[in-house]
Structures are given as structure tokens and as C-alpha cells.
Write a structure and sequence with these properties.
Helices cover 20% and strands 26% of the residues. Strands 3, 4, 5 and 6 form a four-stranded mixed β-sheet that branches. A two-stranded antiparallel ribbon has the order 1-2. Strands 7-8 form a two-stranded antiparallel ribbon. The chain is an alpha+beta fold and 137 residues long. It has two domains: 76 residues, no CATH class; 60 residues, no CATH class. It has three helices and eight strands. A hairpin with a 2-residue loop joins strand 4 and strand 5.
Length: 137
């Protein structure tokens, strides 16, 4: 899919590492996912959670600026914390969507890390997994 804003520059929305800009996100809302009507009761939307320009990932603030400038919903950014703090706090975090429970939180190292194939390392702490770890721990 291509989106051409009024400025005349093209923003390419596809998973192609050689393209200029790649937007990462997911569709949400009614008829897209189970419980999607809790997020957007009367329709669908795209929620942006990452942006890569060429081979470089944008920091959360710049990613949010890009999303807002394109009129997209942007996933909220949490303050910097350790993985252990994420595990302890994820159950008490509030969802950005009032009628939908929080699924979890995504963590990225302050200094980006990559595996031996050049893929960025991130982690997801799901509420249900944190609760299970707390109960068994």
C-alpha cells in the first residue's frame, strides 16, 4: 500500500528493508480480531508501533511524531524500566483503550541490540505470563 501525503513525497507501507520508510503496526477493531469491538466498537483502525527508515529504527518519540503526522493511532510509550520492573508492573498498567484489557507491554533495550542476522531484539511481557510467573515464583 502506498500513501502520498500532500507534500509530494511517498511513504511506502510494506515490509521491505530496501524501501525508504516501513511502518509497523496492526489492525484493530470490530471484525479484525477476537474482542476487537472492545477497542473500536464501530469500525477498524491501524495502530502504529514502530517505524524503520532504511535500516534504522526510530526511537519511540520520533516514531510517535511520524504516526501523528500521518493521522495514525500510535501505541502509547512507557517510561524506561528494567525487564524485572516490567514483569512487576505490567499487571497494573492501564490500557490505552478504555473498554479493552491490556494485553502486555513491549520492551526495547535503551541501546539497540541485534541478533547475528541483524534482527533487532525486543521482548513482550504479557499480562497473563507475568501473573503466572508471580504465582509460581
Amino acid at each position: 500500500m502506498r500513501h502520498s501525503p500532500g507534500s509530494g513525497c511517498s511513504i511506502i507501507v510494506e515490509d521491505d528493508p530496501d524501501c525508504g520508510v516501513t511502518l509497523y503496526g496492526e489492525g484493530s477493531g470490530r471484525r479484525i480480531q477476537k474482542g476487537g469491538g472492545n477497542y473500536i466498537p464501530d469500525g477498524q483502525s491501524f495502530v502504529l508501533f514502530d517505524v524503520r527508515i532504511g535500516g534504522h529504527w526510530l526511537d519511540p518519540g520520533n516514531m510517535a511524531d511520524v504516526g501523528r503526522s500521518l493521522g495514525l493511532n500510535v501505541i502509547p510509550t512507557l517510561p524506561c524500566m528494567t525487564l524485572s520492573d516490567m514483569m512487576d508492573r505490567v499487571e497494573s498498567l492501564e490500557s490505552a483503550w478504555p473498554n479493552a484489557p491490556l494485553e502486555g507491554a513491549i520492551g526495547r533495550p535503551v541501546i539497540p541490540l541485534y541478533d547475528n542476522k541483524g534482527h533487532r531484539i525486543t521482548t513482550k511481557v504479557k499480562v497473563k505470563d507475568a501473573a503466572q510467573a508471580r504465582e509460581s515464583g
